[in-house]
């Protein structure tokens, strides 16, 4: 299914600065990072170690970036990283990370150290966007000299903490707007032809093709299945155009692609994908599925 021409740019020609500026001018603030996210994080200060790990300044907007850490760090314990809001428009990833901190994190602190970044891309959260204002995808930018400030701040955070990660759970969504907006926009930006994929109806996981840890992935899916349905493969036995490894799991070379779960050498890593546009799932179920994914991972590791 080929998408109609995107309204910005010339077919076959990558965007220059004028096209990126035109795209940016069309973006609008639609919700509040401060009201929806920061106010929750402020309340965590009574129970956890909350730190500002960076700042983003875009036009007249200032965004402080926050990480929530275990209050009593123990170098003898393994460390788990949970990331949300790499793509700011993926709502349940942000609110799933916040709900995990609020309701589950303390229960596992006797076993693990935690690093949780609930909303890596606050401008994307506010404008309901996949990219940052520079038309850069943070989830393709987790490498040294990153072109995305959002990704660079996280990389510096992990480097400054100086810890080896046992596991990394990155909370995402796949939405209908991936086909209606974000993939067509990417093709236009890059001067390529866009061909849409089937959007999976349900939850699935993306792992590292070079270290799949499929037993771990299955443990995550088993916990999520208690909350919402797992996405079936399409008629070609694929999810988002990629062959499945096992039901509910696909894999990519995460380091090569600059994906968030490729930012470290964590033995166990997974990217969650919730489908909030499903007729069979509510927004609250999507948030709960994100929490369940982290819990499933922790139970397996424990």
CATH architecture: 3-Layer(aba) Sandwich
Reported for the largest beta sheet, the result is: 8 strands, mixed
Order of helices and strands: HHEEEHEHHEHEHEEEHEH
Q: What is the CA-CA span between the terminal residues?
A: 44 Å
Which secondary-structure class do the elements indicate?
A: alpha/beta
How are the strands of the biggest sheet laid out side by side?
1-2-4-3-5-10-6-9
Quaternary state of the chains: single chain
Strand content: 15-25%
Name the CATH homologous superfamily. Answer: Zn peptidases
Gyration radius over CA:
18 Å
Helical residue percent band? 25-40%
Q: Let me know the average pLDDT.
A: 97
Low-confidence spans: none
Our count of helices gives 9
Please tell me about this protein's structure.
Residues 29-302 form the Peptidase M14 domain. InterPro entries: Peptidase_M14 (IPR000834). It holds the Pfam family Peptidase_M14. Belongs to the peptidase M14 family. One of its GO terms (molecular function) is zinc ion binding. This protein is an alpha/beta fold and 302 residues long. It has one domain: Zn peptidases (Aminopeptidase). 33% of the residues lie in helices and 20% in strands. The protein contains nine helices and ten strands. It has an eight-stranded mixed sheet, with helices on both faces. The chain has a two-stranded antiparallel ribbon with strand order 7-8. Strand 1 and strand 2 form a beta hairpin. Helix 3 (91-103) crosses helix 9 and helix 7 (214-224) crosses helix 9. The mean pLDDT is 97.
